[in-house]
Amino acid sequence: MPGARKTFTSNEKAFKRIAQYLKDGELVCIFPEGKLTGDGEINEFKSGLTRILQETPVPVIPLALQGLWGSFFSRDPAKGLFRRFWSRVTLVAGSAVAVEVAEPAKLQALVGELRGTVR
After folding, report:
1. Which residue range or ranges hold the Phospholipid/glycerol acyltransferase domain (predicted)?
2. How many angstroms separate the Cα of 49 from the Cα of each of 38, 107, 111?
3. Which helix H or strand E contains 20, and what residues bound it?
4. Which stretch of DSSP H or E encloses residue 93?
């Protein structure tokens, strides 16, 4: 689901929706950085992740995307014909992390390990 940063009301609706999905047993995938990377590196995880876990305590499965940087859809400054339109993107999943230890800094480190050196 897309993030909602425009107003407090839309932000609150997004958090309520996420909580309901999780209570219903659905999977929710978020990008806790809150924005696209400008340099291919993982940005600091934002507090929204902590808020979600406080409202709806569930295990977290860390995921990492490999091969997206430099593709047509990244913000790589190398624009033009040399950008890869069709790229092999890999999704790497880690083991579930218990909500009691699912802190943003720890999860960010786990995602970094999963991604490795492939951007």
Report:
1. 4-65
2. 21, 10, 14
3. helix 8-23
4. strand 90-93
Q: Which residue has the tokens 């970094």?
A: 112
Q: Are 52 and 27 in contact (CB under 8 A)?
A: no
Token pair, residue 55, equals 């409202």
DSSP-derived 3-state class of residue 48: helix
Q: 59: closest CA among 29, 97, 114?
A: 97
Task: Please tell me the predicted confidence (pLDDT) of residue 80.
Answer: 52
Q: What pTM, to 2 d.p., does this model score?
A: 0.76
3-state secondary structure of 8: helix
Tokens of 104: 């943003």
**Which of these ranges, 24-38, 50-64, 79-93, has the smallest mean pLDDT?**
79-93
- Dump pLDDT digits (tens) for 75-107: 666 655 555 556 788 899 999 999 999 999 999
| Burial class of residue 48, CB neighbours in 10 A (0-12, 13-18, 19+) | buried
- 115 φ/ψ angles, rounded to the nearest 5 degrees: -70, -35
Alpha-carbon distance 108 to 50, whole Å? Answer: 12
